[in-house]
Amino acid sequence: MKNVKAIAIGGFDGMHIGHQKLFEAVGETGAVLVIETGYANLTPGRAREHYTDLPVFYYELETIRHLDAEGFIAKLSEEFPKLEKIVVGYDFHFGKDRRYAIDDLRAYFSGEVEVIDEVAIDNDSVHSHKIRAKLQIGDVKGANRFLGYNYTVHGEKVPGQGLGEKELFATINIDVKGFLLPKEGVYVTFARLDDEEHYHPAVTFIGHRVTTDGSFAVETHILDMNVGDIKRVRISFVDFIRPNKKFENLESLKAAIADDIAIAKRDTQRLSL
After folding, report:
1. How many domains would you assign to the chain?
2. pLDDT digit string (tens) for 214-268?
3. Interior angle at CA 206, CA 205 and CA 207, nearest 5
4. 201 lies in which domain range?
5. How far is residue 59's CA from residue 64's CA, in Å, rounded to a whole number?
6. Taking a C-beta distance cutoff of 8 angstroms, is the pair 65, 95 a contact?
7. How far apart are CA 108 and CA 94, in angstroms?
8. Helix (H, G, I), strand (E, B), or coil: what is residue 215?
9. Contact present, 130 and 101 (Cβ < 8 Å)
10. Which one of 107, 211, 230, 265 is most buried, counting C-beta atoms within 10 A?
11. Is 253 in the same domain as 232?
12. 3-state secondary structure 58-123
């Protein structure tokens, strides 16, 4: 904190293209200050750090919400003693009941306050709540366009039903905690295993296994390899293939999965991560 000269302040759930404009404005000596509300589910917790090279610091909302504008600036000045510049979005508010705004920052901060204007694509403003809404209807392409990257979740490998490898196609079951999951269905994805640097083309199912045991699962079939002993998986969503549905038997389910795999192979051949 001692050498930081500029900070971008916000909730930064999603680290989307609008947020990136704030990060660009702080420069190489800058940092990101996350006001952690506990509601982030696009990039929860330290997942944000995957999408910026800047150092990231965190204030828990409950520890600062009692501060007025003068107290908030005093805290920043104490913890960032070389601070010369604050960067915020056009709709930034802070303090109890969000009662303080940009004018209050300028009134109490002796340095520069830079405000980044609204970022829009085709006249549609970029906001985290819109990204969530797109994911909830399976529009991962639309969500990715606002994010500036493929929406990604990660988690630990967990035991599955055991049906995949025996009766269908081998899958990795993942325990995804804290992330918003897209609409139930099947997706073209890329998967990164453990500490590998590259991603593998994959097809991923999210939802209740209505044809078999009815339980909820996030499971991924890797297209180009037999998966060995792994612990963690990152899943990046590329496109929606089909909604979740119940099949009459395992043979019909297997045929549908084979079609899903063919679509994923075709689509991922055009892409790379």
Report:
1. 2
2. 899 999 999 977 777 899 999 999 999 999 999 988 888 889 999 999 999 998 8
3. 120
4. 136-268
5. 7
6. yes
7. 14
8. coil
9. no
10. 211
11. yes
12. EEEHHHHCCCCHHHHHHHHHHHCCCCCEEEEECCCCECHHHCECHHHHHHHCCCEEEEECCCEECC
Task: Say if 144 falls within a structural domain.
Answer: yes
Per the listing, tokens 């994010």 go with: 147
Write out the two tokens for 60. 């828990």
Cα separation, 170 vs 102, in Å, equals 53
User: Higher-confidence residue: 126 or 97?
Assistant: 126
Adjacent-strand bridge partners of 111: none
209 has a pLDDT exceeding 60: yes
Token pair of 134 as six digits = 């797109």
Q: What percent of the chain has pLDDT over 70?
A: 96
Mean pLDDT of 41-51: 97
Q: How many CB atoms are closer than 10 A to CB 38?
A: 10
- Structure tokens that stand for 172 in this block: 């990795």
Q: How far apart are the first and last CA of the chain?
A: 33
- Angle, to 10 degrees, between the axis of helix 128-136 and the axis of helix 140-147? 160
Q: Are residues 246 and 204 in the same domain?
A: yes
Spatial contact of 208 and 168, defined as CB atoms under 8 Å apart: no
Sign of CA dihedral 227, 231, 236, 242: positive
pLDDT digits (tens, 9 = 90+) for 149-163: 999 999 999 987 665
Write the CATH number for 247: 2.40.30.30
Buried b (16+ CB within 10 A) or exposed e, 190-205: bbbbeeeeebbbbbbb
Q: Whole-angstrom Cα distance, residue 50 to residue 185?
A: 26
Q: How many CB atoms lie within 10 A of CB 118?
A: 12
